[in-house]
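notes to self, project folder thing:

trying the whole complex as one job this time. last attempt i did each chain seperately and stitching them together was a nightmare. two parts in total, labels are on each line so i dont mix them up again. if this works i'll redo the older ones the same way
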Amino acid sequence: MLRPRIIPCLLVHNDGLVKTVRFAEPKYVGDPLNAVRIFNEKEVDELIVADIDATAVGREPNYALIANLAAECRMPLCYAGGVTTAGQVQRIISLGVEKVAISSAAIASPDVVAESAQRVGSQSIVVVLDVRKTGLLRRYELFTHNGKRSSGQDPVEFARRAAALGAGEILVNSIDQDGTMHGYDQALIDQIRDAVSLPLSVAGGAGSLEDIQDLISRHGIIGAVAGSLFVFKGKYRAVLINYPSRAEKDELLNRARSLRSS
Amino acid sequence: MITVVDYGLGNIQAFANIYKRLNIPVRVARTAAELAGAERIILPGVGAFDWAMQRLNDSGMRVCLDDLVLNRRKPVLGVCVGMQMMAGRSEEGALPGLGWLDGDVKRFDEARFRQRTHLPHMGWNDVRPVADAGLFRQMASPRFYFLHSYYFVSGPTGQILATTNYGGDFTSAAHAGHILGVQFHPEKSHEWGIQLLKNFAEL
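result (full assembly):
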Protein backbone atom coordinates (compact mmCIF):
# COMPACT_ATOMS: atom_id res chain seq x y z
CA MET A 1 0.00 0.00 0.00
CA LEU A 2 1.22 3.47 -0.89
CA ARG A 3 1.98 5.53 2.21
CA PRO A 4 1.48 9.25 2.78
CA ARG A 5 4.82 11.08 2.87
CA ILE A 6 6.18 13.05 5.84
CA ILE A 7 8.70 15.53 4.48
CA PRO A 8 11.11 17.95 6.19
CA CYS A 9 11.72 21.16 4.26
CA LEU A 10 15.08 22.90 4.63
CA LEU A 11 15.71 26.51 3.59
CA VAL A 12 19.15 27.62 2.38
CA HIS A 13 20.12 31.28 2.90
CA ASN A 14 23.68 32.63 2.67
CA ASP A 15 25.00 29.03 2.43
CA GLY A 16 23.49 28.11 5.79
CA LEU A 17 20.18 26.57 6.79
CA VAL A 18 17.50 28.87 8.19
CA LYS A 19 13.90 28.70 9.28
CA THR A 20 11.52 31.59 8.65
CA VAL A 21 8.25 32.83 10.13
CA ARG A 22 5.71 33.94 7.50
CA PHE A 23 8.60 33.94 5.00
CA ALA A 24 10.57 36.47 7.15
CA GLU A 25 12.89 36.55 10.21
CA PRO A 26 15.30 33.84 9.01
CA LYS A 27 16.88 32.09 11.98
CA TYR A 28 20.11 30.13 11.48
CA VAL A 29 19.64 26.44 12.23
CA GLY A 30 22.78 24.76 10.87
CA ASP A 31 24.73 23.41 7.93
CA PRO A 32 22.85 21.85 4.95
CA LEU A 33 25.01 18.76 4.44
CA ASN A 34 25.15 18.04 8.15
CA ALA A 35 21.35 18.22 8.33
CA VAL A 36 21.05 15.80 5.39
CA ARG A 37 23.31 13.32 7.19
CA ILE A 38 21.12 13.47 10.29
CA PHE A 39 17.95 13.05 8.22
CA ASN A 40 19.55 10.02 6.50
CA GLU A 41 19.95 8.35 9.88
CA LYS A 42 16.34 9.20 10.73
CA GLU A 43 15.11 7.60 7.46
CA VAL A 44 12.96 10.50 6.34
CA ASP A 45 10.50 9.78 3.51
CA GLU A 46 11.70 12.60 1.28
CA LEU A 47 13.50 15.89 1.66
CA ILE A 48 12.86 19.33 0.17
CA VAL A 49 15.73 21.80 -0.01
CA ALA A 50 14.79 25.34 -1.06
CA ASP A 51 17.38 28.00 -1.86
CA ILE A 52 15.48 31.15 -0.84
CA ASP A 53 18.17 33.53 -2.18
CA ALA A 54 18.32 32.46 -5.82
CA THR A 55 15.09 34.01 -7.13
CA ALA A 56 15.24 36.93 -4.69
CA VAL A 57 18.64 38.08 -6.01
CA GLY A 58 18.05 36.75 -9.53
CA ARG A 59 20.86 34.22 -9.71
CA GLU A 60 21.18 30.67 -11.05
CA PRO A 61 20.74 27.67 -8.76
CA ASN A 62 23.93 26.73 -6.90
CA TYR A 63 24.81 23.57 -8.86
CA ALA A 64 27.80 22.68 -6.71
CA LEU A 65 25.64 22.68 -3.58
CA ILE A 66 22.89 20.68 -5.32
CA ALA A 67 25.38 18.02 -6.48
CA ASN A 68 26.75 17.71 -2.94
CA LEU A 69 23.26 17.41 -1.46
CA ALA A 70 22.13 14.83 -4.04
CA ALA A 71 25.20 12.69 -3.40
CA GLU A 72 24.65 12.83 0.36
CA CYS A 73 20.90 12.10 0.32
CA ARG A 74 19.86 8.49 0.87
CA MET A 75 16.26 9.65 0.46
CA PRO A 76 14.57 11.30 -2.54
CA LEU A 77 15.41 14.98 -2.89
CA CYS A 78 13.29 17.80 -4.25
CA TYR A 79 15.21 20.98 -5.07
CA ALA A 80 13.58 24.42 -5.19
CA GLY A 81 14.92 27.90 -5.84
CA GLY A 82 15.81 30.08 -8.82
CA VAL A 83 14.74 27.63 -11.52
CA THR A 84 13.69 29.61 -14.60
CA THR A 85 14.40 27.38 -17.64
CA ALA A 86 13.88 23.77 -18.78
CA GLY A 87 17.65 23.61 -19.35
CA GLN A 88 18.25 24.28 -15.66
CA VAL A 89 15.72 21.59 -14.75
CA GLN A 90 17.55 19.08 -16.95
CA ARG A 91 20.89 20.02 -15.44
CA ILE A 92 19.59 19.63 -11.88
CA ILE A 93 18.02 16.22 -12.64
CA SER A 94 21.28 15.06 -14.18
CA LEU A 95 23.02 15.95 -10.89
CA GLY A 96 21.01 13.16 -9.25
CA VAL A 97 18.01 15.06 -7.89
CA GLU A 98 14.65 13.26 -8.19
CA LYS A 99 12.37 16.30 -8.38
CA VAL A 100 12.75 19.96 -9.28
CA ALA A 101 10.32 22.58 -8.01
CA ILE A 102 9.32 25.54 -10.15
CA SER A 103 7.67 28.51 -8.50
CA SER A 104 7.96 32.10 -9.81
CA ALA A 105 8.89 30.90 -13.32
CA ALA A 106 5.79 28.71 -13.51
CA ILE A 107 3.67 31.82 -13.08
CA ALA A 108 5.75 34.18 -15.21
CA SER A 109 6.22 31.73 -18.10
CA PRO A 110 4.11 28.56 -17.75
CA ASP A 111 5.78 27.09 -20.86
CA VAL A 112 8.76 26.29 -18.63
CA VAL A 113 6.62 23.70 -16.85
CA ALA A 114 5.45 22.09 -20.10
CA GLU A 115 8.91 22.04 -21.64
CA SER A 116 10.55 20.67 -18.50
CA ALA A 117 7.95 17.91 -18.17
CA GLN A 118 8.48 16.96 -21.79
CA ARG A 119 12.23 16.66 -21.31
CA VAL A 120 12.56 14.96 -17.93
CA GLY A 121 9.08 13.50 -17.43
CA SER A 122 6.17 14.82 -15.35
CA GLN A 123 7.13 12.72 -12.34
CA SER A 124 10.10 15.01 -11.68
CA ILE A 125 8.32 18.37 -11.98
CA VAL A 126 6.83 20.02 -8.89
CA VAL A 127 4.93 23.29 -9.16
CA VAL A 128 5.00 25.34 -5.96
CA LEU A 129 2.09 27.56 -4.96
CA ASP A 130 3.04 30.14 -2.32
CA VAL A 131 -0.34 31.36 -1.10
CA ARG A 132 -1.38 34.27 1.11
CA LYS A 133 -4.78 35.63 2.09
CA THR A 134 -5.27 39.17 0.79
CA GLY A 135 -7.76 42.03 0.85
CA LEU A 136 -10.81 42.61 2.96
CA LEU A 137 -12.32 39.33 1.79
CA ARG A 138 -9.14 37.45 2.72
CA ARG A 139 -9.06 35.68 -0.63
CA TYR A 140 -6.31 33.23 -1.42
CA GLU A 141 -3.76 34.63 -3.85
CA LEU A 142 -0.50 33.37 -5.35
CA PHE A 143 2.70 35.17 -4.39
CA THR A 144 6.27 34.90 -5.69
CA HIS A 145 9.75 36.08 -4.70
CA ASN A 146 9.55 34.73 -1.14
CA GLY A 147 6.06 36.08 -0.64
CA LYS A 148 6.98 39.64 -1.56
CA ARG A 149 5.39 39.89 -4.99
CA SER A 150 1.69 39.50 -5.62
CA SER A 151 0.75 37.69 -8.83
CA GLY A 152 -2.98 38.39 -8.81
CA GLN A 153 -3.58 34.70 -9.63
CA ASP A 154 -6.02 32.35 -7.99
CA PRO A 155 -4.23 29.26 -6.58
CA VAL A 156 -7.01 26.80 -7.47
CA GLU A 157 -7.13 27.95 -11.09
CA PHE A 158 -3.37 27.86 -11.28
CA ALA A 159 -3.16 24.36 -9.80
CA ARG A 160 -5.47 23.12 -12.58
CA ARG A 161 -3.36 24.90 -15.14
CA ALA A 162 -0.14 23.41 -13.74
CA ALA A 163 -1.65 19.93 -13.96
CA ALA A 164 -2.65 20.53 -17.59
CA LEU A 165 0.87 21.77 -18.37
CA GLY A 166 2.38 18.50 -17.18
CA ALA A 167 3.35 19.07 -13.54
CA GLY A 168 3.77 15.83 -11.57
CA GLU A 169 3.12 17.27 -8.12
CA ILE A 170 1.68 20.39 -6.53
CA LEU A 171 3.29 21.80 -3.40
CA VAL A 172 1.02 24.28 -1.61
CA ASN A 173 2.68 26.53 0.89
CA SER A 174 0.65 28.80 3.16
CA ILE A 175 2.67 31.96 3.79
CA ASP A 176 0.26 33.01 6.57
CA GLN A 177 0.91 29.77 8.46
CA ASP A 178 4.66 29.47 7.72
CA GLY A 179 6.70 29.05 10.89
CA THR A 180 3.71 29.69 13.16
CA MET A 181 3.28 26.00 14.07
CA HIS A 182 -0.48 26.70 14.39
CA GLY A 183 -1.56 23.87 12.09
CA TYR A 184 -2.08 23.52 8.34
CA ASP A 185 -4.55 25.73 6.46
CA GLN A 186 -7.13 23.00 5.88
CA ALA A 187 -9.52 25.17 3.86
CA LEU A 188 -6.80 26.02 1.37
CA ILE A 189 -5.70 22.39 1.12
CA ASP A 190 -9.28 21.17 0.58
CA GLN A 191 -9.73 23.58 -2.33
CA ILE A 192 -6.55 22.47 -4.10
CA ARG A 193 -7.17 18.78 -3.36
CA ASP A 194 -10.59 18.98 -5.00
CA ALA A 195 -9.13 20.66 -8.07
CA VAL A 196 -6.39 18.21 -9.12
CA SER A 197 -5.65 14.48 -9.00
CA LEU A 198 -1.86 14.95 -8.93
CA PRO A 199 0.13 14.06 -5.83
CA LEU A 200 -0.27 16.99 -3.45
CA SER A 201 2.15 18.11 -0.77
CA VAL A 202 1.32 20.83 1.70
CA ALA A 203 3.46 23.09 3.85
CA GLY A 204 2.96 25.85 6.36
CA GLY A 205 1.88 25.57 9.97
CA ALA A 206 2.69 22.03 11.11
CA GLY A 207 3.37 22.37 14.84
CA SER A 208 3.06 18.79 16.04
CA LEU A 209 2.80 15.22 14.83
CA GLU A 210 -0.94 15.48 15.63
CA ASP A 211 -1.25 18.17 12.94
CA ILE A 212 0.28 15.73 10.47
CA GLN A 213 -1.96 12.92 11.67
CA ASP A 214 -5.04 15.18 11.22
CA LEU A 215 -3.94 16.06 7.72
CA ILE A 216 -3.44 12.42 6.73
CA SER A 217 -6.68 11.26 8.33
CA ARG A 218 -8.43 13.89 6.23
CA HIS A 219 -6.76 13.28 2.90
CA GLY A 220 -5.21 9.79 2.89
CA ILE A 221 -2.36 9.93 0.39
CA ILE A 222 -0.72 13.32 0.78
CA GLY A 223 2.72 14.83 1.39
CA ALA A 224 2.87 16.44 4.84
CA VAL A 225 5.69 18.99 4.74
CA ALA A 226 7.10 20.65 7.85
CA GLY A 227 9.99 22.99 8.58
CA SER A 228 9.95 24.25 12.17
CA LEU A 229 8.58 20.98 13.55
CA PHE A 230 11.65 19.02 12.41
CA VAL A 231 14.34 21.59 13.27
CA PHE A 232 13.15 23.06 16.58
CA LYS A 233 12.38 21.52 19.94
CA GLY A 234 10.35 23.09 22.77
CA LYS A 235 8.70 26.47 23.20
CA TYR A 236 12.01 28.35 23.09
CA ARG A 237 12.65 26.92 19.63
CA ALA A 238 16.01 25.36 20.48
CA VAL A 239 17.59 23.99 17.31
CA LEU A 240 17.36 20.19 17.34
CA ILE A 241 16.87 18.17 14.19
CA ASN A 242 14.20 15.54 14.83
CA TYR A 243 11.83 13.22 12.97
CA PRO A 244 9.53 10.37 14.05
CA SER A 245 11.15 6.94 14.20
CA ARG A 246 9.98 4.18 11.85
CA ALA A 247 7.75 2.76 14.63
CA GLU A 248 6.34 6.18 15.56
CA LYS A 249 5.63 6.93 11.92
CA ASP A 250 3.88 3.59 11.35
CA GLU A 251 1.78 4.21 14.47
CA LEU A 252 0.85 7.70 13.30
CA LEU A 253 -0.18 6.36 9.88
CA ASN A 254 -2.22 3.56 11.46
CA ARG A 255 -4.03 6.02 13.72
CA ALA A 256 -4.72 8.33 10.78
CA ARG A 257 -6.04 5.38 8.77
CA SER A 258 -8.42 4.24 11.50
CA LEU A 259 -9.68 7.82 11.94
CA ARG A 260 -10.22 8.01 8.19
CA SER A 261 -12.23 4.81 8.00
CA SER A 262 -14.27 5.52 11.12
CA MET B 1 33.53 -4.76 -8.22
CA ILE B 2 30.38 -2.82 -9.12
CA THR B 3 30.38 -0.53 -12.15
CA VAL B 4 27.76 2.23 -12.31
CA VAL B 5 27.02 3.39 -15.85
CA ASP B 6 27.11 7.20 -15.93
CA TYR B 7 25.39 8.35 -19.13
CA GLY B 8 24.41 11.62 -17.49
CA LEU B 9 21.23 10.51 -15.73
CA GLY B 10 20.34 9.11 -12.34
CA ASN B 11 21.96 9.36 -9.01
CA ILE B 12 25.39 7.87 -9.72
CA GLN B 13 27.00 9.22 -6.58
CA ALA B 14 24.26 7.90 -4.32
CA PHE B 15 24.96 4.34 -5.57
CA ALA B 16 28.69 4.87 -5.18
CA ASN B 17 28.29 6.18 -1.63
CA ILE B 18 26.21 3.20 -0.55
CA TYR B 19 28.77 0.70 -1.91
CA LYS B 20 31.61 2.62 -0.25
CA ARG B 21 29.72 2.37 3.01
CA LEU B 22 29.33 -1.38 2.47
CA ASN B 23 33.06 -1.72 1.71
CA ILE B 24 32.22 -3.11 -1.72
CA PRO B 25 34.52 -1.80 -4.46
CA VAL B 26 32.70 0.49 -6.87
CA ARG B 27 33.61 2.59 -9.88
CA VAL B 28 31.80 4.87 -12.29
CA ALA B 29 32.07 4.38 -16.08
CA ARG B 30 31.59 7.35 -18.40
CA THR B 31 33.24 5.90 -21.53
CA ALA B 32 33.37 2.53 -23.28
CA ALA B 33 37.01 2.19 -22.16
CA GLU B 34 35.97 2.66 -18.53
CA LEU B 35 33.05 0.25 -18.94
CA ALA B 36 35.06 -2.54 -20.60
CA GLY B 37 35.90 -5.29 -18.15
CA ALA B 38 32.95 -4.52 -15.85
CA GLU B 39 31.92 -7.56 -13.80
CA ARG B 40 28.65 -6.32 -12.32
CA ILE B 41 26.75 -3.36 -13.73
CA ILE B 42 24.18 -0.85 -12.48
CA LEU B 43 22.16 1.06 -15.07
CA PRO B 44 20.44 3.94 -13.24
CA GLY B 45 17.88 6.34 -14.63
CA VAL B 46 15.64 9.29 -13.88
CA GLY B 47 13.57 11.13 -16.46
CA ALA B 48 11.62 10.54 -19.65
CA PHE B 49 12.17 7.35 -21.69
CA ASP B 50 13.40 8.89 -24.96
CA TRP B 51 15.65 11.36 -23.20
CA ALA B 52 17.29 8.51 -21.28
CA MET B 53 17.61 6.25 -24.36
CA GLN B 54 19.06 9.09 -26.41
CA ARG B 55 21.65 9.88 -23.77
CA LEU B 56 22.66 6.24 -23.44
CA ASN B 57 22.87 5.84 -27.23
CA ASP B 58 24.98 9.01 -27.47
CA SER B 59 27.26 8.04 -24.58
CA GLY B 60 29.49 5.82 -26.69
CA MET B 61 28.91 2.95 -24.22
CA ARG B 62 25.93 1.28 -25.90
CA VAL B 63 27.87 -1.31 -27.96
CA CYS B 64 30.11 -2.22 -25.05
CA LEU B 65 27.12 -2.48 -22.71
CA ASP B 66 25.19 -4.79 -25.07
CA ASP B 67 28.31 -6.95 -25.42
CA LEU B 68 28.89 -7.22 -21.66
CA VAL B 69 25.26 -8.09 -20.91
CA LEU B 70 24.24 -10.21 -23.92
CA ASN B 71 27.51 -11.99 -24.88
CA ARG B 72 29.52 -12.04 -21.66
CA ARG B 73 26.41 -12.43 -19.49
CA LYS B 74 27.55 -10.00 -16.78
CA PRO B 75 24.90 -9.34 -14.10
CA VAL B 76 23.17 -6.01 -14.59
CA LEU B 77 20.62 -4.13 -12.46
CA GLY B 78 18.40 -1.52 -14.14
CA VAL B 79 16.82 1.06 -11.84
CA CYS B 80 13.60 3.02 -12.55
CA VAL B 81 13.94 4.29 -16.12
CA GLY B 82 17.02 2.04 -16.27
CA MET B 83 14.66 -0.93 -15.86
CA GLN B 84 12.18 0.48 -18.37
CA MET B 85 14.99 0.90 -20.92
CA MET B 86 15.60 -2.87 -20.72
CA ALA B 87 12.16 -3.45 -22.29
CA GLY B 88 11.40 -3.53 -26.02
CA ARG B 89 9.52 -0.27 -26.13
CA SER B 90 7.68 2.29 -24.03
CA GLU B 91 4.42 4.15 -24.45
CA GLU B 92 6.28 7.20 -23.16
CA GLY B 93 8.61 7.42 -26.12
CA ALA B 94 9.32 6.59 -29.75
CA LEU B 95 12.86 5.21 -29.48
CA PRO B 96 13.34 1.43 -29.19
CA GLY B 97 14.44 0.09 -25.82
CA LEU B 98 17.41 -2.20 -25.18
CA GLY B 99 15.21 -5.27 -25.61
CA TRP B 100 16.96 -7.24 -22.86
CA LEU B 101 13.75 -8.11 -21.00
CA ASP B 102 10.65 -9.59 -22.60
CA GLY B 103 8.01 -6.93 -22.09
CA ASP B 104 6.85 -3.41 -22.81
CA VAL B 105 6.42 -0.26 -20.75
CA LYS B 106 2.91 1.11 -20.40
CA ARG B 107 1.29 4.08 -18.68
CA PHE B 108 -0.93 3.33 -15.69
CA ASP B 109 -4.59 3.56 -16.66
CA GLU B 110 -6.02 6.33 -14.47
CA ALA B 111 -9.40 4.57 -14.37
CA ARG B 112 -7.83 2.01 -12.01
CA PHE B 113 -7.50 4.48 -9.13
CA ARG B 114 -10.22 4.90 -6.57
CA GLN B 115 -8.35 7.38 -4.36
CA ARG B 116 -8.02 11.10 -5.13
CA THR B 117 -4.33 10.91 -6.02
CA HIS B 118 -3.60 9.25 -9.36
CA LEU B 119 -0.29 9.76 -11.14
CA PRO B 120 2.60 9.74 -10.78
CA HIS B 121 2.91 6.84 -8.34
CA MET B 122 4.99 8.76 -5.82
CA GLY B 123 6.23 7.64 -2.42
CA TRP B 124 6.91 4.56 -0.30
CA ASN B 125 5.11 1.37 -1.18
CA ASP B 126 5.31 -2.32 -0.22
CA VAL B 127 7.20 -4.68 -2.48
CA ARG B 128 6.23 -8.38 -2.41
CA PRO B 129 9.05 -10.54 -3.73
CA VAL B 130 8.45 -14.00 -5.21
CA ALA B 131 9.51 -16.70 -2.77
CA ASP B 132 13.06 -17.37 -3.96
CA ALA B 133 14.14 -13.89 -5.09
CA GLY B 134 17.79 -13.53 -4.07
CA LEU B 135 17.67 -9.81 -4.71
CA PHE B 136 15.30 -9.46 -1.74
CA ARG B 137 17.15 -11.71 0.71
CA GLN B 138 17.13 -10.69 4.39
CA MET B 139 14.38 -8.12 4.18
CA ALA B 140 11.35 -8.08 6.45
CA SER B 141 8.33 -6.42 4.81
CA PRO B 142 10.40 -4.45 2.30
CA ARG B 143 9.22 -1.02 1.21
CA PHE B 144 10.82 1.17 -1.41
CA TYR B 145 10.51 4.63 -2.91
CA PHE B 146 8.67 4.87 -6.23
CA LEU B 147 8.42 7.81 -8.63
CA HIS B 148 6.89 6.93 -12.02
CA SER B 149 3.78 6.98 -14.22
CA TYR B 150 4.86 4.13 -16.53
CA TYR B 151 5.50 0.51 -15.58
CA PHE B 152 6.96 -2.67 -17.04
CA VAL B 153 4.51 -5.28 -18.32
CA SER B 154 6.13 -8.70 -18.62
CA GLY B 155 5.84 -10.62 -21.91
CA PRO B 156 5.16 -14.37 -22.10
CA THR B 157 8.73 -15.39 -21.22
CA GLY B 158 9.28 -12.57 -18.71
CA GLN B 159 9.97 -13.50 -15.12
CA ILE B 160 8.53 -11.46 -12.30
CA LEU B 161 10.70 -10.93 -9.22
CA ALA B 162 8.31 -8.79 -7.19
CA THR B 163 4.95 -7.08 -7.38
CA THR B 164 3.51 -3.91 -5.85
CA ASN B 165 -0.05 -2.72 -5.48
CA TYR B 166 -1.06 0.63 -6.90
CA GLY B 167 -4.65 0.49 -8.03
CA GLY B 168 -3.99 -3.21 -8.69
CA ASP B 169 -0.76 -5.23 -8.81
CA PHE B 170 2.05 -4.39 -11.20
CA THR B 171 5.55 -5.80 -11.73
CA SER B 172 7.96 -3.81 -9.56
CA ALA B 173 10.96 -6.10 -10.22
CA ALA B 174 11.64 -8.50 -13.09
CA HIS B 175 14.54 -10.53 -14.46
CA ALA B 176 15.82 -12.70 -17.27
CA GLY B 177 18.55 -14.63 -15.49
CA HIS B 178 21.46 -12.24 -14.94
CA ILE B 179 19.48 -9.25 -16.24
CA LEU B 180 17.50 -7.63 -13.39
CA GLY B 181 15.34 -4.55 -13.20
CA VAL B 182 13.62 -2.71 -10.36
CA GLN B 183 11.06 0.06 -10.85
CA PHE B 184 11.74 1.66 -7.47
CA HIS B 185 14.82 3.56 -6.29
CA PRO B 186 17.00 1.37 -4.01
CA GLU B 187 19.60 4.16 -3.84
CA LYS B 188 16.93 6.30 -2.14
CA SER B 189 15.27 3.67 0.02
CA HIS B 190 17.28 3.66 3.24
CA GLU B 191 18.10 0.28 4.81
CA TRP B 192 15.93 -1.74 2.37
CA GLY B 193 17.73 -0.18 -0.56
CA ILE B 194 21.14 -0.76 1.00
CA GLN B 195 20.28 -4.43 1.59
CA LEU B 196 19.06 -4.83 -2.00
CA LEU B 197 22.23 -3.28 -3.43
CA LYS B 198 24.30 -5.55 -1.17
CA ASN B 199 22.29 -8.56 -2.37
CA PHE B 200 22.90 -7.59 -6.00
CA ALA B 201 26.64 -7.45 -5.33
CA GLU B 202 26.52 -10.95 -3.84
CA LEU B 203 24.18 -12.68 -6.34
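what i see at first glance: The mean pLDDT of chain B is 96.
need to look closer tmrw
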